[in-house]
Amino acid sequence: MDVPDSLARGVAPAPPGTLHARSVNGGVEMPPRPGLTVRFGRGERPDVDLCVGEDDLWVSRRHGELTFSKQRWWLRNTGQQLLRLPRGRLMHAATKAFPLAPGYTPVFVRGSGFREHLVELYVTGHDEERAPRRRAATLPPRRWPLDDDERLLLVVLGQRYLLYEEGPRPLSYRQAAEQLAYLRPGGDWRERRIENRIETVRRRLDAGGFPYPLTHDKAAGGPSDNLLHNLLRGLVESTTLVPPDLDLLEDDLESLPGEEGPAG
């Protein structure tokens, strides 16, 4: 959801704490009044204030609600399916109410099949004196520094990510070693050396504020399988690695080494 239209037009903005909620079926604007509750779901007024997923029987008639209390809007799941918030946060009907921060929060209601129904929430903050910046230069995504060998290695490991496959996983270190030995004969592409090089990249980018976890929490003893996945996902999302990088492979991508479980 963009900044509310009143802000873009230069009209006096809504007072801080005002809730703007929108779905494909319409939108509502509610003042920050203690005890006020906004309900959304498949049902009709007066049961809900905002219709969501009107033709999807997986969406409850009252699937969620927002209540203003203690100077904040609090989101609760009142439906049978989960709600999904940013950063993968999930909400069940038994989950405690979640406080919305000022600004934009997308909420996804799980529907039938692969459907998800979007509810866009925007809470007006105290610093809403924003002006249109249509002519300003676009800010690029944060791209992460890689040397040539690191880029080649990560493109080989993450070529399925660069093909934008559904649910991609990295090549194993053995598969990468085989392909690199073919692409760059004479190089030292032993599996252990590849693993150590990737660990060096992970630690460096993690220290630089990478958006996904890249190192083990040894105290917690957490699993490590997803660390390489997190690295490749973040590099592709930030456009540090892009599809034209596949030209580095200089070979038919269909002739990959045999399938094997992912490395982590």
From TrEMBL:
It holds the Pfam family FHA. SUPFAM superfamilies: SMAD/FHA domain. It comes from the Bacteria. This is FHA domain-containing protein. Keywords: Phosphoprotein. Residues 38-90 form the FHA domain. Residues 1-29 are annotated as: Disordered. InterPro entries: FHA_dom (IPR000253), SMAD_FHA_dom_sf (IPR008984).
